[in-house]
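The material for today's practical consists of a large collection of protein records. A record pairs a protein's sequence with a compact description of its fold. Instead of coordinates, the fold is spelled out as a row of discrete tokens. We will come back to this pairing of sequence and fold again and again. Here is such a record, shown just as it appears in the course material.
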Amino acid sequence: MVKVNSVYFRSILNKSVYDEFGDSLGKLKDVYVSTEKGYPIFIGYKVLKDREDFYYEFRNINFYEHRGKIIIKVSGVYDILPQSYKYLLSKELLDKQIVDINGKKVVKIMDLHIANIGNEVRIVAVESGITSFLRRYNIKYIPSFFKRAVNQIFKKTIDTVIKWEDMESIEFIENNNLAISIPHQKISTMHPADIASILEDLSDIDRKRIFESFNDDLASEILEEIEDNNIRVDLIKDLSDSKIISILDYISNYELADILEEMDDKSKERILINLEESDIKTIKTLMSYEDDTVGSLMNTEFISFNVNMKLGEMFEIIQDIDFKDEYLYNIYVLNEENILEGVINFKTLMFGERHLDVYDVMDKKFIYLYDTEDLNTALEIFLKYDLVSIPVVDKNMKICGSLFIHDVLTKDFLKN
């Protein structure tokens, strides 16, 4: 029999507990822990004997390994009243979701690493993944090649160990439950795509609570990165009226049109009533396009100038405009009828002679897409000419918007 100072929590559950006289107190069913900061301390024990629950404190508790099994020995046994202890580990922590900030993902707590430190048993880490899953069902031996195969098929089963000091995502609250929360200040510094991935894996309640904590600009970027449109719809529907109004300014019309298409009439009207008349007209136009056409996915926000301007005039105006950087990939040149006549790239804008006419420096042989073309055709053109964005026109060459390759690549039709 060998004394061990570190064990898995599941390895001690349902194991017999022996006092200093060698008598069995019963089988360990759960553990109460303190809620003080730092590594949680085991402070109470729920033990089952003869189909009856007993609750104890132990002055000392030690773990021993004998022939692959854990044996629990204690001394200084005291009865306690369970109502004065709040947090049962197996009931309120195991199988709960937490956010692994460093791994940028949501994991389920499958097991706990516990250690005997200075006569105190503490939680030092949590574990998630296939190894802890198998341990839960007492499956101890499995070929490594099979484990790798399972990890390859089910990416989220990859083994993860998170130290307790990194567990900013867990807090104890007063209603006898564990709240799974995210350190908002830390997560808000992550890329919106990483935040979106985390939110998609959270429960509905946690997702909505976390989403409402972000500022309007970040929230809109996260919405654009969330791939599941049903999740986007649920997040928008449950926002307060004031939050909807403030966040709408940051959501592009084509993204909003995509969300509105999945909403019921009542929710749709609640959003449209807060929009400008021009935005409502644009959104309805976008929604009128057939699915998987260029028009249904184009961005109606772009930078354009009249063909009769000087390059210097254009440069001065752009300096005073607040816009997304991606709009600078191409700047569109139009005539008085909004017909697309040319394109100016960012390099020409920055380094071209300021006195030159826009007409003389613009690219008159440019690639464009019709709003009614299908997205598969658009993708072929993007790849053939190695483009990031392409202007979109109607049958009369009037500018309608622009299409970005990242929007095409994340469109659902490509995943089928």
